[in-house]
Amino acid sequence: MARATISDVAAAAGVSQATVSRALRGSANVSPATRAKVEQAAESLNFTLSKSASTLASGRTMRVLLLVSGPLNTWFNASVLQGVYDVLAPEGYDTIPAFVTNREQLDRFFRDLPRDRNADAIIITSFEFDTALHDQLSALGMPVVGLNSPSTAGFDASIGIDNAAAITSGVQLLRSLGHRRIAFVHDYIPHDMVYGTSTRVAAFRTAAAQAGYGDDDIVMIGADHHDTTPAMLDVTAAGIVARLLSCEQHPTGIMGETDEFTAAVYKELRRQHLAAPRDFSIMGFDDAPVSRTLDLTTLHQNPVELGNAAARKVLALLRGEAPEQTHELVPATLVLRETTGRAPNGR
Amino acid sequence: MARATISDVAAAAGVSQATVSRALRGSANVSPATRAKVEQAAESLNFTLSKSASTLASGRTMRVLLLVSGPLNTWFNASVLQGVYDVLAPEGYDTIPAFVTNREQLDRFFRDLPRDRNADAIIITSFEFDTALHDQLSALGMPVVGLNSPSTAGFDASIGIDNAAAITSGVQLLRSLGHRRIAFVHDYIPHDMVYGTSTRVAAFRTAAAQAGYGDDDIVMIGADHHDTTPAMLDVTAAGIVARLLSCEQHPTGIMGETDEFTAAVYKELRRQHLAAPRDFSIMGFDDAPVSRTLDLTTLHQNPVELGNAAARKVLALLRGEAPEQTHELVPATLVLRETTGRAPNGR
DNA sequence: TTGTACGCGTTATCAT
DNA sequence: ATGATAACGCGTACAA
């Protein structure tokens, strides 16, 4: 059985192709009677419109790209995908995930994007762009919405959490608990600056200074490579803890860039027979599931909702409307759990 | 600047459209000289082939659907997606994720799939199908590959882990450690049987029986609802632990259906001042990152590699070849960590 | 409200 | 190896 085409349906319903097209897409100017006839004919012929043919004829692809930084199987990226999918799918849009791992891939991605005509819009998450890239964004010729991008330049709309404010509240928590020396532990920061990892690092620096910590009271320790395999994470964490504990007078307040990373550091700390909050305080960032299972104090964000919001902005832009809020900054709120408490005596 | 079309390139290169098409797709029968001319013309006009137009003309969409059971933001599903993407993207295929949460959505999905002509193949993960669905699969009219599906019926190819063998090895571990009574804790099993959650439950039952456990020595405890939010997970786990500990003589060997679920149960157990492996042994399934952070004994599987393999089978099928192995069953291997040990005395 | 007819940008068939 | 041309299946002015 060859596939039914729109003209088969037209013939079966006794109307023209154009009317079938209008009826099936819920367009106006179709009488209820004809619409019913057409729908029935389509149903009995087991027919739906071909997305590719529609795309070719209309110019709309009904697809939106989701470009994430790094692998798709992290809690954050997967949750954003879920959130985007949730609002796009009911509207008939496909969500096409993509990711790049280095600057070269990113450049090629942006170069091919506009001419491929394979998507109507793009959502870009967690990228740290230099100005050259902002120009590329504008040249894309389609709506571009940013998610947790440090700058709004080049984006038609964006949503993100207020990293700076969140980290400030974290720093202030540690200070109010009496921690005289504090540390920030973070992932590897690649030189080509594709990833957005440095926003929180910078935020910690300034927050600590503002809270009155001197340069000697702050220690920043980053991973020295970018191998994210679980096994390597433990090794990385071990190295970080070694550096942490070998400070002349080691920090007792620790903030981590993400919950996953913090969990590894925390684990190594326990392996050294140190306990939180007895011997130190430690807090993560994200409120990922692992922070719950560890009762880790953290800063809450909801990537599913960020994805929802980004997708809604895309939809508005695609309709030619302005999003309710063009550039939105939502707070990440402190969640107190069991790993933070008063600084140990004498520190 | 209007977009360049294939005929613009043809004109610029001084050849016909047909030749441009052949040259740009790396087809045979194009002289190196013309190919170079064409490529250069395309480059200078900033041209690439339109996927939609190609699809319409050729019938190939260069897209494959990935249907997962449940949300995309679980470790397993996100990892499968990553694995599929990794092998499909270099070949020029888009990976389109989709998921359904109940039987009705699933039926509609399958009904619309063949007539939408929006994908060349489909990968289906972790679904428990009844026979009616197997027929629908065959009627899809495109390659269908299964991933961790309990049966191979209806699939053109499949890959999955050997749940039964893995669970048997887990049960035997507990028995060899001296646990006289054992329990299996698992997620909610919906009545419409869309999810594949029952495979491991059934496997545990038979493995326990074969290992010599009597009916009174086995306790199965499932969640009584399907709310997977992190906060509810803790509540669910609390209920399960309550039931576990209020048994006449409670089991000391516990297996969980997944690491995530097991982690929640384990946490509640610790909250009751019970410690593993001192008071009980507990093991998970999957070797998800959380099992590492908890040093949880578990059964290892690698969903990224499963995704890779499934995608490779799709590619083979699409080329009209037979996959290297049509139906593949890979072992899930026991990973001994810190939460299992000899049964407490007197039990 | 409905129909006519053209165009969307390729691929594929058949010549040459 | 290359060129002409007919599909591919739909959207959309424009006309009726």
Task: Describe the protein in words.
Chains A, B: Keywords: DNA-binding, Transcription, Transcription regulation. Chains A, B: Residues 4-58 form the HTH lacI-type domain. With 347 residues, chain A is α/β, with parallel strands linked by helices. Chain A has three domains: 6-58, 434 Repressor (Amino-terminal Domain); 63-160 and 303-331, Rossmann fold (3-Layer(aba) Sandwich); 163-301 and 334-346, Rossmann fold (3-Layer(aba) Sandwich). Chain A is 43% helix and 16% strand. Chain A is built from 13 helices and twelve strands. Chain A has helices spanning 6-13, 17-24, 32-44, 51-58, 75-88, 103-116, 131-138, 163-176, 198-210, 230-245, 259-271, 289-293, 303-318, and strands at 63-69, 94-100, 121-125, 144-147, 157-161, 182-186, 218-222, 253-256, 281-283, 298-300, 327-330, 333-335. In chain A, the strands form three sheets. Chain A has a six-stranded parallel sheet with strand order 2-1-3-4-5-11. In chain A, strands 7-6-8-9 form a four-stranded parallel sheet, sandwiched between helices. A two-stranded antiparallel ribbon of chain A has the order 10-12. In chain A, helix 8 crosses helix 9 and helix 10 crosses helix 11 (259-271). Chain A is elongated. The mean pLDDT of chain A is 91. Chains A and B meet through helix 4, helix 5, strand 2, helix 6 and helix 10 of A and helix 4, helix 5, strand 2, helix 6 and helix 10 of B. Chain A binds a DNA duplex (16 and 16 nucleotides) through helix 2 and helix 4.
